[in-house]
Write a structure and sequence with these properties.
Layout (H helix, E strand, L loop, with lengths): L1 H13 L7 H4 L3 H14 L5 H18 L6 H15 L8 H12 L5 H10 L2
Length: 123
């Protein structure tokens, strides 16, 4: 969780939000923990697809549960890609498609299974 919060602060600083403002510091820690635990409870297989599924779960749960006051869409993608890279997997999706998919998922325009299938195709 500390890593996710640190990534969130870096994203806020990079993309224009003031990292020390009151709103940007707000994180619902219980919701963030729930997001992480829920994603981890779904996947227990060591196969690479399981790691990609877990990454998808991290991203999806941040999008759905919105644990940060601001930046949840960026954070969902960052958490997912960071987890993939930490586990030796390569993310092969372009920025335009990433943006479309994250916005679509955040607007409830897809299911979790569709999100997961997209992540698997691009890992």
């Amino acid at each position: 969780m500390r890593v996710l919060i640190a990534i969130h602060q870096q994203l806020l600083a990079r993309y224009g939000s003031k990292p020390n403002s009151e709103k940007s510091r707000q994180v619902d820690l219980a919701m963030l923990e729930l997001s992480v635990l829920r994603a981890e409870s779904v996947v227990r297989d060591p196969h690479w697809k399981a790691r990609a599924r877990l990454a998808a779960g991290y991203g999806w749960r941040v999008l759905v549960n919105r644990p940060f006051a601001v930046g949840n869409k960026r954070m969902a993608l960052a958490a997912m890609v960071t987890y993939l890279e930490m586990n030796g997997l390569t993310w092969k999706c372009g920025e335009v498609e990433e943006t479309v998919m994250v916005l679509r998922a955040a607007a409830k325009g897809m299911t979790e299974d569709e999100w997961e299938a997209w992540v698997l195709r691009n890992s």
